Amino acid sequence: MAEPYNTPIPGSTPRSGSPVSHPIHPLPLGHPNPHPHPHANNASTTASKPRILHLGDPIRFNKTTHDLLSLNYDIIRPPTPERQRRAFTQALQGRKWGDFEAIFRPSRHSGGEMDDWDDELIGLLPPSVKVFANAGAGFDGVNTRLLGERGIVYCNGGPACADSVADLAVADQGRAMLTCHNGGDTVEAHAGFEELSMRNVMAVLEGEEPSSAVNLAYLKKKKKKD
């Protein structure tokens, strides 16, 4: 099932108490991109840039990295009504967003309105798609095997909430079963999900290894068959 969407992060959202051992720092604005997309044209209109589909609410914590991403890519963010299952399916069928190359969902609290990424939705994706970067530590509701068989790298946000989960586990002393979805509700985790999803997209589109891909084995099998 799809997760709740358009849910604001409340002021009482917990923060991780331990120092982050592997912080995900946003890239500085104006930071030179060592591997720009070969078809990107920063000086021209966005219509000439490769397209990325942004599912969910606007970036909240890592706007500098988002600005850098926008330099090389045309980021399309469908409004909430277009992300509902029926409307989203029709948009894919009609190629409403053209031949986009990546999908990223930077927040667990929005962007899941179309429900499960099953054979129906994945089968409607244009062949240009190379990567799907999703927030959250798991991948329930996403057919990662089928994505891999189509040559699409799927990345989750597990590393972004590892420290928060450790904090909660220590605090509760084993009195509750805790998962990354619990720790994923800290401010640090929300910021990390955003940053990691954008970095994974840039890595794949620039021919580099993403940080948290979970279906590379299926891509390797596809290459062997080809």
From TrEMBL:
**UniProt-recorded name of the protein:** D-isomer specific 2-hydroxyacid dehydrogenase catalytic domain-containing protein
Renumbered to this chain, the Pro residues biased-composition regions fall at 25-35
Q: Where is this region: Disordered?
A: 1-45
InterPro entries hit by this protein = D-isomer_2_OHA_DH_cat_dom
Q: Which GO terms describe its molecular function?
A: NAD binding; oxidoreductase activity, acting on the CH-OH group of donors, NAD or NADP as acceptor
Q: Which organism is this protein's natural source?
A: Epichloe festucae (strain Fl1)
| Domain D-isomer specific 2-hydroxyacid dehydrogenase catalytic: start-end pairs | 115-215
Domain of life from the UniProt record: Eukaryota
Q: Which Pfam families match?
A: 2-Hacid_dh (PF00389)
Q: Where is the composition biased (Polar residues)?
A: 9-19
